[in-house]
Amino acid sequence: QIKAQRLLYFNMSESTKPHPQGKGEKTHVGDSSYVGIDAILEQMRRKAMKQGFEFNIMVVGQSGLGKSTLVNTLFKSKVSRKSVQPNPEERIPKTIEIKSISHDIEEKGVRMKLTVIDTPGFGDQINNENCWQPIMKFINDQYEVYLQEEININRKKRIPDSRVHCCIYFIPPTGHCLRPLDVEFMRRLSKVVNIVPVIAKADTLTLEERDYFKQTIREELRANGIDVYPQKEFDEDAEDRMINDKIREMIPFAVVGSDQEYQVNGKRILGRKTKWGTIEVENIAHCEFAYLRDLLIRTHMQNIKDITGSIHYETYRVRRLNESNIHFSAHLSDDPAVEPKANGQLEEQPSALQPNGVAAQHEALSHEM
Amino acid sequence: MTRPISANYVPDDLSRAVPLAGHVGFDSMPDQLVNKSVNHGFCFNILCVGETGLGKSTLMDTLFNTKFEGEPTQHNQPGVTLKSNTYELQESNVRLKLTVVNTVGFGDQINKEDSYKSIVEFIDAQFEAYLQEELKIKRTLHSYHDTRIHACLYFIAPTGHSLKSLDLVTMKKLDSKVNIIPIIAKSDAISKSELAKFKIKITSELVSNGVQIYQFPTDDESVAEINSTMNSHLPFAVVGSTEEVKIGNKMVKARQYPWGTVQVENENHCDFVKLREMLIRVNMEDLREQTHTRHYELYRRCKLEEMGFKDTDPDSKPFSLQETYEAKRNEFMGELQKKEEEMRQMFVQRVKEKEAELKEAEKELHEKFDRLKKLHQDEKKKLEEKKKSLDDELNTFKQKKTAAELLQNQAQQAGGSTTLKRDKERKK
After folding, report:
1. Is the model's pTM score more than 0.90?
2. CA B276, chain centre distance (Å)
3. pLDDT category, A162, cuts 50, 70, 90?
4. DSSP B318
5. N or C, where is chain B less crowded by C-beta within 10 Å?
6. Residue B321 to residue A102, Cβ atoms within 8 A
7. Dist CA A35 CA B60 (whole Å)
8. Which residues contact B305 (CB under 8 A, 6 or more apart)?
């Protein structure tokens, strides 16, 4: 029943609900060869339900692209406050701000702490040079906080996870190609965080325009060596690759967000009402919101967190711990957001020392430690 | 730390609860998590501590319904060694890497003072291996084969009286390092009434000696009841058997005696079912978690403090482990350099000395050679002189001889016999 869930991704039916094993159900009573090892699944599930989950999602894009609306639509609640209020005093910020809001949400006994990180001001200036820097810094800062707690001697049982699991990048629906800002941002950030690019306000594109735009974007991403989620190199096995290949053929998802409900065919659905028709947000014939939601929440959320933890965070950690080995390690960090820490104590290698011997011992010590 | 951190973590009590207007779908998260674990496989490591012959291997076989290979050990081991075997088990879609560690020779020695040491060392070694991996720069924690002991089954001999002092000492040394589940082995040797008394005695002895055994967790409502009931049945009185006997129309695991049959899975006969229920079906995950969050953390804390790391210095400013690493590393490097210098000096010194020695020897040899040469020359000279003098003698003799012959000839010619007479007279 668990394997089936992966392939149900593309059936899109509401019945992709998991069927948890009933508690206390003895399915193997009287079976003398039954040991009960598989009961660990239920034990794990119980533990997970008790602990709850954390998910940190960042939205990046120019103002007016519908970021807050999309997040609210994804989580069907007001988890994100629209950044530009009707009040004329509250203008677009002069610098990029990073705003983090957490909410506790619960569904069928599963509790989740959802943190939405908004980046008002991104791409809104006239000169947008280095506008990715505060965002990079924020992401790296969260890794740093986690690392500091992890290397503490007295550390918490569960290290609070504020690391950005997923960054949704909003591409304006120009229909042509990626702008230099888009390329720069995604190129840099795809190395430190999972990026999910989406075409915002996709109801302004016809289906042909949409397909052409998506194809162009995919090519540009490929040409610039930008690896967005799901990254090809992290596919675990053939099955994974198959599922993820299908997703990679569809990204970026063309989405429409809405928090307004309308009556369509006797049902109340989320949509945008225009004079020429009502766009149903969750209708895959109209837009790809449902695919995005399923990817982010229903099927790949755990995987997104795993990649953040075991790959992006580990990469940061390696770089950070190597910083003091700068005289001996083979490569230096080239990320502008991370300044190599100058180690004043060993300015020059004493001529009597043989570099190979010392470096090897150094390596051994850091491994030993 | 040179950079200020904008830690954006909102503590739990400050994040707002928000109602959902429809089905979002993150209720599938437990399934996603379980799915990932299924693909990964699970690890579970059991340590069996107990004297030889208490049925440890048989119990493992019975618990996991397999015949783990192995010969029963002899009683003549010189010390306690730990033998570990890893097996891959699979049930429906769950793959389990089970490691069973046995104490070989426990309780067999005459002097058992150090018996617990090898067990403690083994447990610590597993923690150490994990710590090493965790501290590595390039690490692969998610694919690391966790060998830390999750559960320690302590086999108590069915004497019916009380715990042996070896048991108390060993359990006391282990209780802060591993989850201990004490069990009464071969409990078919004890009658029901004796068993009740025995259990009470054991429990009270454990309490009075401050031994912390593993308590099945009672904080989750779904299992709180069963766990607290089971807690009161500790230590479990078990019987193990892999042989099957026909009871009624079923084949059951049992031990057959002339006076009756002890059925392993009959709860009236022994607590085997309770043990299996608690150890595997209900609390396996909790055992793993306690090992990681409590026992391992304790080990890690002690080890790091021992190595000289601190979280805060006397002025209450947080040290970064990074800085301490660096300080230690520099210290070490400094020492290393010093040592290398010293060694170099010593080497140079030695070379000089040896060189001087060799030079001395060479000089001596030369002198000896010169002496010998001189000696040789002297000898040669002497010999030549002697030869010369001998030659001279020879020449003189020859001359004399010639002169004498000449005179003889002259005498013969002058007066034949008179010279002869004179010669004769002369000769006389």
Report:
1. no
2. 32
3. very high
4. B
5. C
6. no
7. 11
8. A153
The Cα of A107 is separated from the nearest Cα of chain B by a number of Å equal to 6
A residues 108-137 near B, CB within 8 Å?
A: 108-110, 112-113, 115, 117, 137
Q: Are A343 and B326 in contact (CB under 8 A)?
A: yes
**Hey, of B3, B12, B26, which one would you mutate to test binding to chain A, going by the most A CBs within 10 A of its CB?**
B26
Give the number of other Cβ atoms within 10 Å of residue B373's Cβ: 10
Contact A348, A358 (CB under 8 A): no
Q: Which amino acid belongs to residue B209? A: N
Rounded to an integer, what distance in angstroms lies between the CA atom of residue A311 and that of residue A144?
15
Structure tokens belonging to residue A299: 């099927």
Q: Which residue carries 């943190």 as its tokens?
A: A115
Segment B125-182, tens digit of pLDDT = 999 999 999 988 888 888 889 999 999 999 999 988 889 888 999 999 999 999 999 9
- CA–CA distance from A208 to each of A115, A202, A213, B59, B237 (Å)? 36, 12, 8, 68, 74
Reply yes or no: is the peptide bond before residue B235 cis, omega within 30 of 0: yes
Residue from A13, A37, A300, A353 to probe the interface with B (highest B Cβ count within 10 Å) = A37
Residue A267 corresponds to which tokens in the numbers above?
């049902």
Residues composing chain B: 428
* Gap between the Cα atoms of B281 and B6, Å rounded: 44
Q: How many CB atoms neighbour CB B214 within 10 A?
A: 21
Nearest to A194 by CA among A227, A155, A224: A227
